[in-house]
Amino acid sequence: MKRKLFLAVTLSIAALTAKAQEVAYEEYNLDNGLHVILHQDNSAPLVTTSVMYHVGGKDRTEGRTGFAHLFEHLLFEGTENIERGKWFEIVSSNGGQNNANTSQDRTYYYEVFPSNNLQLGLWLESERMLHPIINQVGIDTQIEVVKEEKRRSYDNRPYGQILQAVGEALFSKHPYKDPNIGYMKDLEAATLEDVTAYNKLYYVPNNAVLTVAGDIDIAKTKKMIEDYFGPIKRGGDVIRNYPKEDPITVESKSVVYDQNIQIPASIIAYRTPGFKERDAYVLEMISSYLSDGPSSKLYKKMVDEQKQALQVGAFNIGQEDYGMYLVFSLPVGETTLETLNTEIEEEIVKVRTELISESDYQKLQNKFENEFVNSNSSVEGIAGSLATNYMLYGDTSLINKEIDIYRSITREEIKAVADKYLKPNQRVIIDYLPQEKPAN
Fold this sequence. Notes:
One of its GO terms (biological process) is proteolysis. The protein is of the alpha+beta class. It has 2 domains: about 200 residues, CATH 3.30.830.10; about 180 residues, Cytochrome Bc1 Complex, Chain A, domain 1 (2-Layer Sandwich), CATH 3.30.830. About 45% of the residues lie in helices and about 20% in strands. The protein is built from 16 helices and 11 strands. The protein has a 6-stranded mixed beta sheet, sandwiched between helices. A 5-stranded mixed beta sheet has the order 7-11-8-10-9, with helices on both faces. Helix 2 packs across helix 5 and helix 12 packs across helix 16. The N and C termini lie far apart (about 75 Å).
């Protein structure tokens, strides 16, 4: 009786928490196809203005990789009405902050201002969409910026090539086989005509979502949005028809060398479904079960008890078309990579063949409940979630109901999904080794 009472109280609290956290929003389309999402929260005098474009690293042709990431930088160069190099000065001098980021699937620009500068945020993003200046000087400048970023974050960073190694191992046809940042030879070969055509195709209102969240007046905001974005002409339709990958049915192995490391690493990777699929949510829970925190199965066994690994982690990397699930481990002392792989497989076998315990299941539910609440704790986070849910998941309302998906996942489903995707014949094993010294 006590257990039933405790469960009932817990469920009631969870329901009240979810309701208290519910995000109200309004969405509509402009005539030019721009999707608009508005969220009003007058509790603090701040407003986030963001535009997400449905263009990422995968949107490229052979020999022209990395364009979306280049544009992340290039579209800060200036516009017909913003002098070159003045973008960040305008933002900071008006009490704001801004940034941008690019994934394989989308590019996201945003500003956070005191709410009395909402109009400035809208003007900046409309300028980026309507009047960007794209010339050879800007392209050359930003290619050098990208090169430096690649050197700093990938080429000269320990274990910085891991995601590229996994992409190359899991994909042979789909553009996910190439790194989001692109290959420098492709950027250097790009012409002004190439870059201009890319802008005309992807950075158009009908391939974007504008989100405004924070201390706003809905009616006034709609009027400003129409004034700034309404005159922008609709672009052509973006058509994607990327090749499908053949299923992985036989385990494969590869070796990658990294001159920046001294300790080798093992990577076990699996190709999984895109993040819109229900199974992707289950895989997210499995990765948390295996390696999130010192009490997780892999960490407790291999790091804490058996002292075989310096570090071990399971990561579900969500992408629109296909996901990547990988387990990364670093050995202690004389422990071999093969030993690490054997120990990891032992734990994955258990998930594939046995139900996780009720207490572990409840811990997972609590963790995802907390993450859901925290993700909607700021207007900046809400703006990003609204844009992502609309553009990539096709369902803006996930901001309020995504937690229900996790709540509905059962222990039996966790076992079934692990058995569906995490089998030895569906994996690639990458030995990630210190660079061999050249022979004398």
